[in-house]
Design goal:
The chain is an alpha+beta fold. It is built from two helices and ten strands. A hairpin with a 4-residue loop joins β1 and β2.
Length: 111
């Protein structure tokens, strides 16, 4: 089942497939969805509101202003507290290292 996330603007509706969402970042009072193939979509809602509207478990919150799809993690630079994603984007994290490691292990379970 391919869930969709509707984004309403003044004069248009943009529908984003949840499968395409790589991460969500805060940008002041707005939010930015990073989607596959290098695209971004700016949303006129705050980060917490958008995160609560997305399907539970889709993204993992790594700071007050960023949430990522764990399956997109390529590298974690522990000394810099930066996560590098498969598409090349980098996201700073503020959660504890062991919380991040535990979440990654859960997401990569091979059942």
């Amino acid at each position: 089942m391919n869930l969709k996330y509707p984004i309403y603007a003044k004069d248009r509706l943009t529908v984003v497939s949840c499968d395409e969402i790589l991460c969500l970042e805060a940008s002041g009072a707005y939010s930015v969805l990073v989607i596959k193939h290098g695209g971004t979509v700016t949303i006129s809602k705050n980060f917490s509101k958008v995160l609560s509207e997305l399907p539970e478990g889709l993204l993992f919150k790594v700071s007050q202003s960023a949430a990522i799809r764990l399956s997109e993690v390529k590298y974690i630079h522990y000394s810099e507290k930066v996560i590098e994603l498969n598409h090349g984007g980098k996201v700073k994290y503020t959660i504890k290292k062991n919380e991040l490691d535990a979440a990654l292990k859960r997401s990569f379970s091979y059942e």
